[in-house]
Amino acid sequence: MSRSEQIQKYLSYATKTLFTILGLLMILSVVHIETNKKSPEEIAKILEESKEMRAIMAKGGQLNKNLPEIWPPKMNNVYPDFAMIDQEGREFLLSSLKGKVIIVEYIDISSPVSQAQSGARKFGAYYAASSSDIDEYAKPFAEVLKKNTSGSIVLPNDNIIELKIIIYGEGGGAGTRDDAQQWAQHFNLKKSDNVIVAVTKNDFRGKESDVIISGFQLLDKNMLLRVDSSGATPKHSLAMTLVPLVPKLIRN
């Protein structure tokens, strides 16, 4: 190993150590604040949860143990496989969709963005949202694709599956089969049009999933995550990066 490679290795290790220390300090500061407001029983619970969190962080694991080992999914890696239940009550694995180009969208049904991306401007708001809660900029993927390919690719398309996964259902609870069914019915989302509305079989709620709710991710036919335009701060542009790659992936 060359000297420059050794230096790079030491710097990487030092950076990881620093972030771990900072994370622990943040946890301890929260505990300190909370202990000034809680009862002895609540303090004991906070300390136990903090201990568990530190153990998970030290192992580089997930806070939500229901999540796949690698989460959120990583760019240019095979997408983690997990079980879901669709709007018709059918249980399936994500990997069963291999061979199609997949547009993945994670949903919080109370989110104005999620509402708009499923078609709230056309069908009206769903659940407890009102028309004023619909995001004025977010649009369904079909509209974005048609506009930015000048109509050369329109949905439904036999080579493309839209997979809408509800993470947060009614009242902020975990998405249920009823949530998937009712969301699909309200926005006229049909499996016959290659649109699958689903909920994860296990509860995926938590900070790890929050960062990819709203927006879209693009998976190629081999289940590799090719573009990530999801979350409040997308890694890639939907119109400039994700959409232009769709025609190429369809042809491959």
How would you concisely characterize the structure shown here?
The chain has 252 residues and is α/β, with parallel strands linked by helices. Helices cover 39% and strands 16% of the residues. Strands 2-1-5-4-3-6-7 form a 7-stranded mixed sheet.
Mean pLDDT: 84
CATH superfamily of the largest domain: Glutaredoxin
Would you tell me which CATH topology of the largest domain applies?
Glutaredoxin
**Approximate strand percentage:** 15-25%
Low-confidence stretches: 3-7, 30-36, 53-59
CATH class identity of the largest domain: Alpha Beta
How many distinct domains? 2
Strand arrangement, largest sheet? 2-1-5-4-3-6-7
The topology string of helices and strands comes to: HHEEEHHHEHEHEEH
Helix content: 25-40%
Give the overall shape, derived from the CA principal axes.
globular
What's the number of helices? 8
* Distance linking N and C termini: 39 Å
Q: Report the biggest beta sheet as strand number plus sense, adding barrel if it closes.
A: 7 strands, mixed
Rg: 21 Å
Tell me what the CATH architecture of the largest domain is: 3-Layer(aba) Sandwich
Number of strands: 7
Please identify the structural class as seen in this structure. Answer: alpha/beta
What does this structure look like?
It is a single chain. This protein has 252 residues and is α/β, with parallel strands linked by helices. It folds into 2 domains: 3-59; 83-251, Glutaredoxin (3-Layer(aba) Sandwich). 39% of the residues lie in helices and 16% in strands. The protein has 8 helices and 7 strands; from the N terminus they run ααβββαααβαβαββα. Helix 1 runs antiparallel to helix 2. The model is unreliable at 3-7, 30-36 and 53-59 (pLDDT under 50).
